[in-house]
Every structure is written in C-alpha cells, then in structure tokens.
Amino acid sequence: MNEYIMPIVFGIILGTIARVMMLRTDYRQYPTYLHGKIIHVALGFIAASLGAVAVPAMLEMNFTAVTFLTVAATQFREVRNMERNTLSEIDGDELVSRGKAYIEGIAISFESRNYLVILTAFIGTLFYILWNIYIAFFGAIICLIISKVLQSGSTIKDIVDIEYSPPHFDGAGLYIDNIYIMNIGLPARQEEILKYGMGFILKPKNINVVNTIAHLGQRQAILHDVSVSLGVFRDSGTPALVPLIKRDLDDGRIGVFILPQIRDKEKAMKVIGAVPVLETAIRMPSRANQRKEVE
Amino acid sequence: MVIEKAILAIVTTNKEQVSGGAPIFICETLEEVHKISANLEAMLDGIAHALGEDLFVIVKH
C-alpha cells in the first residue's frame, strides 16, 4: 500500500464531512430533497479528493499535477451556474419571488463552500503527511471552524433597528408610518389589508446601511424570507395583495408591508432580523476617500 | 420597449371625467363601481386603484 493512501483517505473523509456540515437545510428550505443533497455531497467528495490529492502531488515534485486545481475551479463555477439556473427557473413559481440578488448570493455560497472543502482536505492531508494524524485532526477542526465562521455572514438585525408600525390608509393610499406603499382602491381590499397586513419600519444604523437596505434585491430577500417563514396571504391573480417594501427618500428608512398568515409581531421581527445581508447589496461609502475628507 | 404597466379599464360614475383608449365602464352608483372594479380586478389580474372617490382604474403591474 502506498504511503500516501491513508493521508489521502483521511483528507477526503474530512473534506466530505466539512461539506455535509455546511449543507444544512434551514428555513430557506434549500436544498430541500434528497437528490439536491446527493448532488452537493458528491461534488463535495470530488472537491475533497482534489484537495487531498494535491498534497502528495506537490511533495513528489509533480508541480504540473497541481494545475488540475484549475480544472476544479472551472468545475465549481459550473456548480454556481447550475444553482443559479435552477433557482431562477423556480423563482417564477414562487408566490413571493426570491429575486436575482438573493439567488446570486445562494449560488456564490455554493461555489465558495466547495473551495472551503478543498482547503479542509488539503490541510488535513498535508498535516497528516508532515506530522501525524492528531495534528491533522486538529488542523482540520480549525478549518471546519473557519468554514463555519465564513459561512455565516451578518443579518439584517445587525444593521437596522426594527419597529412595528401598523399599516393605515390615507384615502386610497396605503401607508406604513409616513412611507407610501401603494394605492388600493376597493374598500373590501382595504379591509383585508388592514386585517391581515403588518407593517415594519427598518431604521438604518449608519450611512453604509442606507444603501444596503435600499437595494431592491435585499428588499426582495426580506419579503421572500418573511413569506417563507410566516406564510403569505396571497394567491396568483391577486396582485393587490402583494407584500412590498418602499423607501423613505428623506432618511433612508424602509417600510416593510407584509401579509403573513401567522400574525405575530415578535416572530415577524425575529424573522426580518434573521434575513441575511446579501453580499451583492453591501456598500461601503464611508470607506471611500472623498467621504473621509469631508468628515 | 416593453410596457410594464397599463391601464386595462376605467370604471366611473362620471362620464365627463373620462375618455380615451381604455375600455370605460360607466356606472350608476358607487356600489356598482366597487362591484365592477372588484370583478375586473379578479378577471384581469390587475389592481383596482382609486384616482378619486368615484374614479377607478384597473392597472396591470
């Protein structure tokens, strides 16, 4: 038996475990079913193999062999495409769509998780060969922790203050606090909305956040997550009953109007707070040089 | 250019106020306006917006 077999198997197992750990089905309900999971565990296994095999290749001075990692990169970009396509296809069938930015965020994380798997397998195998299995275990656990940390970005509650504010009508205009949401003409619809609707005001904590929560993709993500978690009082062919988020142009607050099936203020605030901040929506105007000079 | 929003129908009691390309429904009473708007809203998958007390437009979003 080759001296590298054990370290490679060790690395592959660790990498695959890392992928399984990162593959959780949470309230976003994605990936849901067994087949979706099998695809990702299998790809995680391939990624782990690549990471593990790279170490002996390097130690044997076979540097050209390491170039196959570029093949891996191409492969995992493909994963991102696959996820994006699937989710975009499904998005049309959602009562409240995810939105392109949210889909992109999910697709990116699927790709990046495979690279984390490669890293874990690489470190595991390398430490095993250089020292012994215990240090390899230790290194791999650190990698897993790093993966976990990298996996969880910030959430909405970190960047805004959430307040409950019941929706009200001024004539035909629906308002949350002073933020105009939409025009609802029929008295019957207005009653429904007052009965089932809930409103929240999200107040940005600083200047960077104003742009982030104004991002249309970020707003759609909030609506989607709330609808998934609390249900939605809506059906196809009832465009008047649509959850919406509008913005106060003066101070950048946003008014969230939702029609949940579970009308529990505390729960709704928790759900809104737990919505991930999309990477694509993050802006850092305070880091710009000009602004520093002004300040 | 794709037109994303369009007025599909106009419902009113006051025919002096309206004219133009969209189908116009002239009603006798305010209740009738509400009833017809609600029906049209359901049929056309649009939203009944109130422009005035007795002037409704069904808009496709």
Walk me through what this model shows.
The complex is a heterodimer of chains A (295) and B (61). Chain A is of the alpha+beta class. Chain A folds into two domains: 5-152, no CATH class; 157-285. Helix content of chain A is 59%, strand content 12%. Chain A contains twelve helices and seven strands. In chain A, the strands form two sheets. In chain A, strands 1-5-7-6 form a four-stranded antiparallel beta sheet. In chain A, a hairpin with a 2-residue loop joins strand 3 and strand 4 (179-183). In chain A, helix 1 (5-22) packs antiparallel against helix 2, helix 1 (5-22) packs antiparallel against helix 5 and helix 4 (68-91) packs antiparallel against helix 5. Chain B has 61 residues and is an alpha+beta fold. Chain B has one domain (6-60). Chain B has one helix spanning 30-44, and strands spanning 6-12, 24-26, 47-52, 55-60. A four-stranded mixed beta sheet of chain B has the order 2-1-4-3, with helices on one face. In chain B, a hairpin with a 2-residue loop joins strand 3 (47-52) and strand 4. Chain B is globular, with a radius of gyration of 11 Å. The two termini of chain B are 16 Å apart. Classes of the chains: A alpha+beta (295), B alpha+beta (61). Chain A binds chain B through residues 171-172, 182-189, 236-240, and chain B through 34, 37-38, 41-42, 45-50, 56, 61. Chain A: Keywords: Membrane, Transmembrane, Transmembrane helix. Chain A: Pfam families: YIEGIA. Chain A: It comes from Ornithinibacillus halotolerans. Chain A: InterPro entries: YIEGIA. Chain A: The chain crosses the membrane at residues 6-26, 38-59, 115-147.
